[in-house]
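ok trying this again, last paste got cut off
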Amino acid sequence: MRTLLRGGRVIDPATGFDGTADVLVSDGVVTAVGEGLTAEPGDMEIDVTGLVVGPGFIDLHSHVHTIAGQRLQAMDGVTTALDLEAGLMPIERAYAEAAAAGRPLHYGFSASWGAARAQVLAGIEPDANIDSGLAVLGNPVWQRSSSPKELAAWLSLVDGELAAGALGVGVLLGYAPDTDPGEFLALARLAKEAGAPTYTHVRELVEVNPETPVDGSAEIAIVAAETGAAMHHCHVNSTSGHQIERVLAALEAGRAAGSRVTVEAYPYGAGSTAIGAAFLSPERLKMKGLSPSSVIMLETGERIADEGRLLQVRAEDQGAPCILEFLDESNPRDLGLLHQALVFPDAIVASDALPVYWKNGTSESTEWPLPPGGATHPRTAGTYAKTLRLMVRESKAWTWLEAFRRCSYLPARVLDEVAPGALAKGRLNVGADADIVAIDPHAITDAATYFDPTRPSVGVRHLFVSGVPVVTDGNLRTDAFPGKPLRGEPR
């Protein structure tokens, strides 16, 4: 069946088109864009007058591996949700399990640097599961530097995952910040040879930890320059904090000199991770100018009272998810720093979305609306709507064309070399994948908060994934599971 979207303000960031047009979709592909297109008998015709119509958002940094989480992201305008910062291992199992369960959105994974190191250095067998992966993050055994033999072993594991179709390499360097910088250089050389990007949570900045082996943001530009690898700097807002001006200036200088470094940010002043992460130790928090009270346990809402309690919860369950407040959004200066990360030239919007957890321990639900009491970070439900509210509606820092460039077109281009299937994404011209979002430009806003994090965003009126409606008239379609795998080209 064909679908005709009639009369919307169509945005194609690939060509720069921004104007009133109809969009015709057939068999999961955009087959025509123009005014006055004719519907045929049996076509589904939808009036999108007054709505902004563009390519669905491509989230390079989503740890949502569930139907529940992907449905929240669908209501936020996302059509492709990829876990590239952390990745999963083994990659074949990750793809097989997602396909078996069904997904509302397209999905994909990078090769997991952390899991490969944990297997070689700590004997921890990976199971392609984010919950067990979070538990591993606080294990100090895998956080040490590798011997030459160990380095060769885990590099071989990573290379095997790339050969099997991983979308690059996810590097959680910030969780093992004291490792030998030579290992990161060796990994980048491997990625360059494989034609695959890296996606890095950088190690600490020198201002935060003068003892760091190398400044985190400087390192990624240096290594990109030395190897020629395409390197993606994850959530520059959270890893830079109050040093964002210095970091962005250094990254811009590196890019001007030829380093292939892309940057992402999200519109929140708090991040989320496992309580056992190295950078959440009491001494590391002090280095950041933060205190234990900056940490909130995700499942219970407990704000950590003092250092003793922090040490206790870290010992009890290293994988327990928590929120870390690194910027105060009520402070105009901190809000300005967050704004700088988003307006940085070609900065990509990415959510760092987390699964939803309920008190019974589950992270999956096929109910809609979601059952009450779900705990997650509000960025899971609200990253893109909040970004559009802040950057287009309120500050007018971006046009709608620029918004779709940052949320759809640029993320797809990060993947072009490694994944041929990305070439038809992030655009809305003839031949493009029919991953489409139609937005009410006056109503789009986030609704999720830190205390009510599973409230869906408002203003996404229609969402199509491979031409299949997932959101219709602002309502989620619970029978829609059109998500397909996006994979690297196997070698």
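PB: full thing came through this time. The chain has one domain: 56-419.
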